[in-house]
Amino acid sequence: MLALGGLFGATRAIAAPAGPMPMGQLVQLIDTDEREDHADITVQFSCSARYIANMPVNHGSSVRITLRLGPDCGSLLGAFPPEMPLIGGGGRLVTNARVESTVPGEVVLELSWARELDFVMAPTANGAGLRLRLIGTSRPKTAVYVAEPEASQGYAVNLESSSQNFERAAVEAAAARLKTQAYVSETNIEDEHWYRLRAGPFASRAEAQRVLEVAETAYPRAWLAVNDETTDLTVVERAGVSTASGEPTDPPLPDDQRAALLRDARSALEKHQYPQAIDLLVRLQRQPEYPARADAQELMGLVRERAGQLAQAQAAYEDYLSRYPNGAGAARVRSRLQALAAASIVPKSTGEFGAAPTGDRWGAAGSVALGYQYGQQQTNSGGSSTSATAVNGALVYEDVLVRARGTRYDFAARADSGYTQNLVASTGGSQDRTTAAFVEATDRQLGLTGRLGRQSLASQGIVGLFDGLSVGYQINPTLSVTGAGGYPVYTSYSSLSTQQQFGTAAMEYSPTRSWIFDGYVYDQLQSGFTDRRSIGFQTRYSQPGRSAVILADYDIAFNQLNSVTFIGNWGIAQSWILGLDLDHRRSPLLELNNALLGQSAATLSALSHQYTLSQIRQLALDRTSSSDTLVLSASRSFGERWQFMADASALRLGGTPASGGVDAIASTGLDKNLSVQIAGSSLLQASDLQIFGVRLDDSPIERSTTLSWDGRFVLTGAWRFGPRFSVEQINAPSLGGKQTLILPELRSDWTGRLSIFEIIAGYQLQTQQALLQQQSLTGQSVTGTLDQRFLYFSATYRRRF
Q1: Which of 586, 590, 680, 798 has the fewest CB atoms found within 10 Å of its own CB?
Q2: pTM confidence score
Q3: Looking at residue 545, which CATH number applies to its domain?
């Protein structure tokens, strides 16, 4: 989306007037590299955005990532209107992306993909991007004929075995602990009678495996059972499951509530909100038999099918036919089952790295966006008033990916570009941007891929985008190597520049689904000087309910640590998710050209006429500060409606010494902040959302308190309405004044299957009390009042295909 992106932010300086930022997006690029059994999503930001936390931890059809914007993002005082980045580079896998903010200085990036998947996430080495690996996105590399979908209810998790029957309380405890069905079965083994406490049954091995990994903490002898309950077995006890139907039952709801749940499920399906639709339909399936239950059962199959959960869809359709063989939708359900069976038949792979289609197939995916932004700014001070149009522009963005799949070779081409028509001459002219423009070829039999053009390769320590060539080689299913070379690009508005050149090589080893190891070497030159030469590694670990990431970058030319980061998320008892983020890094990234900061020389060549190489290296070190960050986060869901989220963080930005004619810069000291949010859904109407937040910030320079409320309501059909209000009180004694920022905002959007139309309007009022000049007679300072107002409006239409 085309966002105002902080257009109306004001600086923290008390006496300085507010000023708009240039039009642009926080998210520059979303790129997806699809492999045989996983996909890597790269998100590139236009400025630094520190990772805080993500929910869910590592499994789902979407993820909400909380980020704290860095000082290079511009003013953090003010609102950050929603942003909907283009997702064409995500192919058919990434279905939606959205950036929102509820408190100043923090944003939430939400990414959605086509179905529920395991994932692991990590920031990039330079702190201006994210990498997500989606696991199990396609079939394994070995060729397998699948003539029929996977049989349902063939898997279970055996928790414990005993010669004595299990008490009802033990069955209920297992069901509650694992949040799934639990039961007791019995069988004879070598003339001895055994009772088994089990979880399940499950429609797929993947579902059973996830439950097994969770169960092993409480049941260390748990194991996976596959289709072993066919003889000599009788179910004797179930928790939350009726023995007649094998499904959970709840107390009956009134008919009007059931009808409302079904309507909400249909609405969620239309908006591609598959997890929400499944949750609503599960509640209906847990009801005792009632006339409209057949409709809910058929809809469950359709939702599962649209979400890509084909085995579960087949199970839902088969359950429909077993319950309602002569139902009104029986013919439709039989047709859907036949279609699923036909779609599941795949040809044998002709190569080592994937199944090939019978012939060349061309396809395209992408999105386009049109937008308009307007902002009017007014300043009142000392009885005088000035006003000006700060923003007035139209924006056009497009992101298109074209792909051809052959019997052995794949080809792809992508273009992600935009144009801004600025109608305010005083704030700069119009401009265009190119975020991605490349062609790609893949030989699946050799496991070789090459890409040429403007692209992103965040896995190898590269700063942002680059123009050049990247090559990847899959040695075997667990080991791959990549290499790249070209010219760094620091913004999408930059043209091709050969002033800097780089080369890099990397290796990735993934012995299991849980572990990923990356290592790289990186070399960058500028004007014949070694600008940066570093080595780095990254380790990612992921298991159900917990994940950890360690990454480090070391500059071997300066013999200095550039960055080291640890991120961990753990799910503990009672649905709590705890997170820890430890980060130490050079700020900005350590490079030789940092020596140019504050100098009159524009290039290293020119600077070399004034200083020796060793002196230039020392200047670069002097101009490069360091930062340390600690973040603790916690979140928990309370029932089906409420969710609690909190994070406490501390940031210290170091100072720099005086040298080379550049003054020293003192450390900012320790900046501490606490943020708490409580989100509630379906409070005033079905599917509404209310987010209440408070944030406290305490630094040596200022203290601030922010209260916020963000609401989302259903108007009619696909229309949504979202009022938002926040108030921030800032006390900056060292700057001699106080500020109050009040921000009401209204937004409304229409969301169709492929289109989104959004309107945003808001009004920012910033009141400042500042020290003015001293009185000539008394010598005392006079306190004056300055207020700044900003009225803004934007309209955006985005369509994907």
Answers
A1: 680
A2: 0.65
A3: 2.40.160
